[in-house]
Amino acid sequence: MSAISIFCTNSINILAGINGIEVAQSVVIALLILLNDSFYLMPMTRHPHPAEESHLFSVYLLLPFLGVSLALLKHNWFPAKVFVGDTYCYFAGMVFAVVGIMGHFSKTLLLLFIPQIFNFVYSAPQLFGIVPCPRHRLPRFNARTGLMEPSRAVFTAEKPLNRTVGELLKILHKLRLLDVETDDKGTVTSTTNFTIINLWLVWRGPRREDRLAMELLTMQATVGLVGLLVRHKLALLVFSQDNRSYGGV
To answer: What's this model's pTM, rounded to 2 decimal places?
Structure first.
């Protein structure tokens, strides 16, 4: 429970840096959880599902959360008039942690957090100091083109990068998991910051801020739907029955 509470709050907080992304990813996750709740509440069995009460609790908590978040998103979407900070990210993360823990579907919840899990694992080299981490890793705005570009961590002679780490970064560059710059001696001088937003810009090229947010949200929704498909179709490989077959038809 402690791990989920810590992860949910911080994973939303570190997948941030462009207008609307913190609130919008929370809205997408909330809608996916409500979709999962509906599978347990639809009248398609002879008897109520044993988890009906816990999923009703999830619905009761998420509906007002969704209303508040949509109102905030209206003002936080590009070009934003209101900016959210740690407070909203921690609030949203704790809402998800509470419904997942109290609803007894924490493993399903993590399937909806796969992009956030990937972002945390991908960010780990900077979060744990293996690669120097600037204070802010949000994408860089190019005033000339009006587009967002990947931000970079720069290494100098005064603060050089460990040579072994540099060689590993070159391998990640070849795999298109980073964009690395080197000098004429082959020494790594800079790399794109380790966030999924910067990685998306490496893959897709510079993007307008709202276009970038929409692509990331589409990815979040697609991965979440696949996660629910795995939970409710492939779960039978592990469990004796799933909610859709409980009680007969």
So the answer is: 0.91
